[in-house]
Amino acid sequence: MKVEEKLSLLNYKTDPEYAHITIKPPICAVCPDHFCTFACPAKCYTLLNGKLNFKYEDCVECGTCFVACAHGSVTWTNPKGAHGVKYKFG
Amino acid sequence: MSEFDVIVVGAGPAGSSAAIKLASEKMNVLLVDRADPPGSKNISGGVLWGNDLEKIVPNWNKMAPVERYITSKGVGFLTKDSSIDVNIKSRKFLQGVTGYSVLRVKFDQFLAKRAESAGAMLVSGVTVENLAFKDGKVIGVVQEGDTITADTVILAEGANPRVAIDSGARRPIADQDVAIGIKEVVKLPEATINERFGLTSKEGFAGEYALGFLEDGVEAGGFLYTNRESISLGVVINMGHLRADDKTYSFDIMDQFTDHPSIASLIENGKLSEYSAHLVVEGGYNSFPKQYGNGYMIVGDAAGLSFSNGLMIQGMNYAIASGILAAETAIEAKKSSDFSEKSLSRYKEKLMESFVAKDAYNFKGIEEVTWGKLAHKIMPSLMEDVLVNMFLTDGTPKKHLTELIRKAMKENNVKSSDLLMEGYKMIRRM
Ligand SMILES: Cc1cc2nc3c(=O)[nH]c(=O)nc-3n(C[C@H](O)[C@H](O)[C@H](O)COP(=O)(O)OP(=O)(O)OC[C@H]3O[C@@H](n4cnc5c(N)ncnc54)[C@H](O)[C@@H]3O)c2cc1C
Ligand code: SF4
Ligand code: SF4
């Protein structure tokens, strides 16, 4: 099963007003490793024609990319209260 | 006058344990969690080892939503084609204390509710944004621009502690402090689980695996725990190793684990019910961050108090124990009306005297070995060659074991000096 299908099993309360994680595109444009694309378990970071694409909506708030990006591109904040992923089992 | 004696940020096992202890000693406590209900963002393997909760919730194991009591323990070395498993089922497990498998959404809610019924004010679905400072001392927390004051703040935010890091209360996280944890919950009928693992309905199995089949030096561990009507399984991937490799995706490692023949057979015909991920703290004694300061203490994962060696994870028990110790310290501080760094340093002393720091100390450096080549690469492939050759009937007389080992070492490019060195390191550390 693809990650996308696995994520579709989850409940999210997406906050359309607030992206809790942001990247700085100029830093990503010259990134030598794109380690975020290998590390993120929810495939939020992908390369499209060599350009980094990030979507916060699928994020499961694991915290990995905050450590994984060694180039200072990732700003990580908590979603606003009660927003984001909501597990059933945990 | 502060509005609260103590504000606890985060209602995971660390924060809720602190709040239960505080409230039951008549302290005025606010317990805040950004999830609604609390626990709905938390995951773990998860086996709650030990019996620390007994101190604050007597007979907790009769009341809490636990899944199964661990009566059977396994360690497996998985290579590409084989698995070498050691399984222990012992009557001794019934006499002593092992652990219970738990599912965190239910379990954490139970603990948070206990804090509430003990008298704590529980607020869920609220994200604490920052600490409030005055004259270099923490005087409360900030939420949507408002300051809520307390004599002491206990930070129990978990493995990615934004408030502690962004406010400078602790140092940021580095590669060696954490691993990437990925988990799946697979539904299966209770009877099928009992049959597959040789259990009764209350008994549980906990297995940890070295993933020796991964290519390019990525080292990861796997776990598989039985719940009543589901199986929790997942992988813990060393951040530094994944970084050093430049072609392996974290989520592919999860698939390789569940597709491995000996794991696939255990979850066969099961239905995937949840996919989740979370950082795992694995720092250990040598990398404890600062755990207290003027007006605050840090507990649980946020304080680096979790131990994982790629094979086994323990964190909930340390979270609970550290939460209780911080609560005790806050109660003492209130008695002396002294919330300074010096007064709260009692928390660190208590930690150092407890099994939390002792465990971390005893295991300091072991991560180097278990994450090292021996456990994840050399042993699995060596044992595979030796055992497979020993039991394969090819019509020729069986060779002597030492000869098989020597041959396997040669084929696996293992120098005896390497094996000795790694073996020595392992024994010394253990
Ligand atoms: C894949 C995996 C497997 C594991 N397996 C095991 C196991 O088998 N056994 C074991 O003992 N341990 C295991 N662990 C480790 C265990 O999960 C942790 O050690 C434990 O959860 C730590 O508890 P905590 O209370 O410190 O943090 P958490 O459980 O993470 O709780 C932190 C809480 O704080 C809240 N929070 C965070 N920031 C804020 C904020 N700013 N405002 C309000 N609320 C906030 C969160 O919503 C959360 O509820 C595992 C971990 C992972 C990831
Ligand atoms: S987020 Fe970091 S690792 Fe990812 S592409 Fe940008 S700079 Fe590179
Ligand atoms: S926090 Fe985890 S899931 Fe979310 S974007 Fe970062 S790595 Fe991906």
Descriptive terms for the model:
heterodimer, A: Alpha-Beta Plaits, 4 helices, 22% helix, B: 430 residues, alpha+beta, FAD/NAD(P)-binding domain, D-Amino Acid Oxidase, Chain A, domain 2, 16 helices, 19 strands, binds iron/sulfur cluster
Radius of gyration of chain A: 13 Å
Averaged pLDDT of chain B: 88
What's the arrangement of strands in the largest beta sheet of chain A?
Answer: 1-6
Uncertain segments of chain A: none
Question: What is the CA-atom radius of gyration of chain B, in angstroms?
Answer: 23 Å
Structural class of chain B: alpha+beta
SSE string of chain A = HEEHHEEHEE
Sketch the major β-sheet of chain B: 9 strands, mixed
The percent range for strand residues of chain B is: 25-35%
> Which architecture of the largest domain in chain B does the CATH hierarchy give at level 2?
3-Layer(bba) Sandwich
Please identify the structural class of chain A as seen in this structure: alpha+beta
Number of helices of chain A: 4
Question: What is the quaternary state of this protein?
Answer: heterodimer
CATH H level, superfamily name of the largest domain in chain B? FAD/NAD(P)-binding domain
Query: What is the CATH C-level name of the largest domain in chain B?
Result: Alpha Beta
* Arithmetic mean pLDDT of chain A: 97
In total, the number of domains of chain B comes to 3
Form type of chain B? globular
What is the count of DSSP helices of chain B, taking H or I runs of 4+ residues?
Answer: 16
Under CATH, the topology of the largest domain in chain B is which? Answer: FAD/NAD(P)-binding domain
* Bound compounds: flavin-adenine dinucleotide, iron/sulfur cluster
Task: Give the topology.
The complex is a heterodimer of chains A (90) and B (430).
Chain A: H1 3-7, E1 11-13, E2 21-22, H2 25-29, H3 35-39, E3 45-48, E4 51-54, H4 64-68, E5 75-76, E6 84-86
Antiparallel strand pairs in A: 1-6, 2-5, 3-4
Chain B: E1 4-9, H1 13-24, E2 29-33, E3 47-49, H2 60-63, E4 66-78, E5 83-89, H3 92-95, E6 99-102, H4 104-118, E7 121-124, E8 130-134, E9 137-143, E10 146-155, H5 162-166, E11 178-187, H6 190-197, E12 203-211, E13 220-226, E14 230-238, H7 239-244, H8 250-259, H9 261-267, E15 271-281, E16 292-293, E17 296-298, E18 307-308, E19 313-314, H10 316-335, H11 341-353, H12 355-362, H13 366-370, H14 373-391, H15 401-411, H16 416-429
Helix pairs in contact in B: 1-4, 1-10, 10-11, 14-15
The complex binds flavin-adenine dinucleotide and iron/sulfur cluster (2 copies).
